[in-house]
């Protein structure tokens, strides 16, 4: 009868122990019985051996006693291990046969029968029996040994964590928690990794059960190799994760019902999540006319080729119609895999790309900036459309590098070639301006920029821009000419006009003793105006510096004096107009210079010249101590300034439709106020007219 039997022989004599260990197995059972004999040298060592391993039978001489004089017979009652004893201190040859039969019968009694042992080995799962408290291995079947890939002798002293690979989360603490669950609840099932003798990781499903065996509570472990199952689960999870991550809808239908839906598919079809779309069919997503079309076209294609592709109209639950491109592949079992993507998003991207291209094209046209690139592998030169427009060539023109250089003025070409060569060989970028002659013969100024494109550590291409800067260069030349003319005008004003006015004032002074009382008043006005003109010529230099971008010196100026003086001059100059002061002008000093007279004078002139002769001009002023500013308001009751012109009236050359002036007055006002650190703007007056508002910083700030 097949089976395994573990026998413990106890004797003080090593020769007896060795003989029984060697010869006794031949007398126990038959050739199918696997007998393993362990030995102990004293009864005191028996208990330790019983705790370490499962013993099916204890063989002991009747003369053997422990340190207290007791025979190991008593251990049977506590350990549940059957005892076979023999008389005397030796075993005769004739006694071995009887002893073997006794051991076999006792072993059969311990395990119920050797059929139970055969079953232990025959089951197609790994089985292990451990001490419930210490977890020491009591017994293990061959199938478990095969999973571990080691022999029985090597596994006896092995704990579960000894064969656990270094995988996060699978440690001794986790293992102890699983055992504790089994101890508390009686059983527990979980998955655990082990490392076999070959170093491979094997995943096992462990079922722990607490059961009584031979009078003792044992921890029985049943294990199955589920490595392939775990791998399939991981592969399936990875596949699902990958499918969920793709930017396309993926569904699997079975009998026209969705059994798998990824999140992208649910989103395209208008469902809140993938789960809510499970169980639906395509009949939920198409209008009747679309369904009819699909029924006529899809099944024949799937039957013939196993796949179908085309555009489909999806009706979302909210009623929105979405265009999508479908790719359907037929599977076994009346199942189909459908991969689809919203064409609405694609068309939106195409529209956005077209808008971007259009924006880039219009930007290039407006800024007159074109692009170019030279592929150094092929020496091919590419121009953008705007670059071709700058050169006045057709849009289908395909230039070469030599062609491009020839467009530059003759004296510029060597410099252009030098910059190209340095960028090509040394990777040196450039930015410079050159004269260029177009295909139509027009001469332009262009600003070109070039830089290297580095790939794999070498210059693989040259890339840059070209911009038509002719207008800017023309303006710069014009500005340079104007500055020269203004400087000449400044010399005339400061020298010739000043000298002539000084002569006029001088002769007028001599007339004081030769005019009567009525003439004295007229002479006084001539002298006042003349001196004012001389003062204006003295500050012409500051005005020139302001207009040319230079700084001007400022100093404290009396606001009240400046306003009163300019009002007096304007009352004389415009006798039909009315100039009033609302309240008092604060007696404060503002940061300015004598050209504050030009600011106030031009604004007062503007209030009268653009309106009727009987215009009423009202001047008021306030001080903001927190902001350290003074504000002048010059209001008229004329026709006012349209809103569209309020932001441009300070531009150079701006003037009213009926104005006969040069258009420089308000431009100079803005430039001067800005140079003082102040601000100026226009507002509507109530009920009609315009208010010029000027803010000056108080002198204490600067």
UniProtKB/TrEMBL annotation:
Coiled-coil features, chain-numbered ranges: 472-499
Domain Histidine kinase residues, every copy: 492-700
Recorded catalytic activity of this chain's protein: ATP + protein L-histidine = ADP + protein N-phospho-L-histidine
Signal peptide boundaries: none
Assigned keywords, A-Z: Coiled coil, Kinase, Phosphoprotein, Transferase
InterPro entries in the record: HATPase_C_sf, HATPase_dom, His_kinase_dom, HisK_dim/P_dom, HisK_dim/P_sf, PAC, PAS, PAS-assoc_C
Protein name: histidine kinase
Protein source organism: Haloferax chudinovii
